[in-house]
Amino acid sequence: MKVICGLGNPGERYRLTRHNMGFRVVDLLADRWSQTGAGRLKDGAALLEVPRPEPVGRVLLVKPMRYMNRSGAPLRAALRQTEVELETDVLVVSDDIDLPLGRVRLRRSGSAGGHNGLRDIISTFGSNEFARLRVGVGRAGEVVDHVLATFAPDERELADEMVAVGADAVERWLSEGVEAAMSAFNGVDVE
Asked: Which residue numbers are catalytic?
């Protein structure tokens, strides 16, 4: 089993904000894989287990529902129900203000880079050894205001494309591994 954890904030108010790119990627994957059900809410996370063709097998889609800076505990609870290894079987998808809109970056491990959701996951697990896919949302003005804002009208189409590119990168990670996904998606600008 593999686990894809998309980070975001729950509620309609935040649905299309920059901070919810992780949720949007997970939602698009569920749509692509014809999973229309809402899944289940357990221990602070929305969970949806999806069968995938071999060699992938089953995938658990996770959306922590306790707000961004409290993402670690719901992910830990979700992983307790599986026999996955954090280092090899988990991919966390988040927004990144240090990447321009139009770029994604996949890494095998690394720091939180100032991202509160990643920071909480690292703190909860006591490890930064998990794959992460960062979806660029750019930087402008006050950070909190920026990430909690929706995209400007002239950015929305590119933001939607970035969600699709993020989902493509996740699917490559699932089927071919982190190195192949990094080679295919890092450094590529979507325009």
From this structure: 19
